[in-house]
């Protein structure tokens, strides 16, 4: 991830095509970055939450899990759907002029605020494949525990988090020079949260639906003879999960059909185009010296 961000920073025309107006590393005890994405509902934080090593088909698989947070812009139409505490914070001195948390205030912002989605990245040690996934709910809904009729938060997680995921996939496809080889979309039962408690209480809900988008692509170590392994078999066995879409692609080609138009989580033809895009480096030397 970090190497892709560094490479992207060398190409101003690439950043413009990706719609990235800014990226800033967060100085903390784990990898994290702020993203300013054009036409997004707010400033994003992508932060590592865990890493894992597993063996699948006699292959060591490395995976990294990230949380996606969104600090909404007060002028955006979705701002009112965030919790009152979230709206108060982004309009307070806890946030600086970049609309990201001020350095001194970061530790005072509860971890359970501003969460909108999850992102994961998996690869093998030989870099023969990469898998990127995006997971959220169509409604991240929270009710008051004292008044079940009062909605405290009703954020459309898919809508809010997807612009960052879309940008990340475009960026990673460009760096890998490979378009998606397979895409799957899963649907799962939703949950709702009872707020106003010391510890949030989550329970099943018919008001929300979960979606998990999985994008597989071959890596630079794959010379065309190996398939991308199924490294997320648990999705097939998740309680109540169902497979909505499963399509294999070849030759960096994507044909947008009726099935793709009906998907609740969109696929971007640009993911394939970015794999073949050529951009001019703005640096005078590879080390960054002008």
Q: What does this entry look like structurally?
A:
There is one protein chain. This protein has 290 residues and is α+β, with helices and mostly antiparallel strands. It has one domain. The protein contains seven helices and eleven strands. Strands 1, 2, 3, 4, 5, 6, 7, 8, 9, 10 and 11 form an eleven-stranded mixed beta sheet that branches. Strand 1 and strand 2 form a beta hairpin. Helix 4 packs parallel to helix 7. The radius of gyration is 20 Å and the shape is globular.
Strand content bin: 35-45%
Name the helicity range: 10-25%
Radius of gyration: 20 Å
> What are the segments in which pLDDT stays under 50 over at least 5 consecutive residues?
284-290
Span between N and C termini?
25 Å
Helix and strand composition category:
alpha+beta
Number of domains: 1
Largest sheet: 11 strands, mixed
- The number of E-state strands comes to 11
| Broad shape | globular
Q: What is the number of helical segments per DSSP (H or I, 4+ residues)? A: 7
Order of helices and strands: HHEEEEHEEEEHEEHEHH
Mean pLDDT: 85
Compact overview of the structure:
The protein is α+β, with helices and mostly antiparallel strands. The chain has helices at residues 2-9, 12-18, 84-90, 157-176, 234-237, 258-261, 270-276, and strands spanning 20-25, 32-37, 42-56, 59-72, 115-124, 129-137, 140-144, 151-155, 182-195, 201-218, 242-248. It has one domain (2-276).
């Amino acid at each position: 991830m970090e190497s892709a961000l560094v490479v992207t920073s060398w190409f101003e025309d690439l950043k413009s095509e990706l719609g990235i107006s800014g990226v800033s590393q967060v100085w903390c005890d784990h990898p994290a970055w702020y993203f300013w994405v054009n036409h997004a509902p707010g400033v994003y934080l992508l932060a590592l939450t865990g890493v894992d090593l597993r063996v699948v088909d006699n292959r060591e698989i490395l995976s990294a899990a990230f949380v996606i947070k969104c600090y909404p812009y007060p002028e955006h139409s979705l701002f009112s759907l965030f919790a009152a505490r979230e709206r108060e914070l982004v309009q307070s001195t806890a946030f600086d002029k970049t609309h990201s948390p001020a350095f001194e205030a970061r530790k005072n912002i509860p971890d359970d605020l501003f969460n909108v989605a999850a992102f994961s990245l998996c690869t093998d040690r030989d870099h023969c494949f990469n898998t990127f996934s995006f997971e959220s709910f169509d409604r991240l809904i929270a009710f008051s525990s004292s008044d079940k009729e009062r909605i405290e938060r009703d954020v459309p997680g898919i809508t809010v988090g997807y612009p960052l995921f879309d940008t990340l996939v475009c960026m990673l496809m460009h760096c890998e020079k490979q378009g998606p080889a397979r895409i799957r979309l899963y649907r799962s039962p939703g949950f709702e949260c009872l707020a106003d408690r010391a510890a949030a209480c989550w329970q099943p809900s018919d008001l929300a639906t979960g979606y998990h988008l999985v994008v597989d692509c071959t890596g630079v170590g794959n010379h065309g003879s190996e398939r991308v392994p199924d490294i997320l078999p648990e999705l097939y066995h998740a309680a109540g999960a169902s497979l909505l879409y499963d399509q294999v692609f070849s030759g960096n080609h994507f044909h947008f059909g009726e099935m793709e138009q009906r998907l609740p989580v969109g696929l971007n033809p640009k993911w394939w185009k970015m794999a073949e895009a050529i951009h001019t480096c703005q640096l005078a030397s590879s080390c960054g010296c002008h």
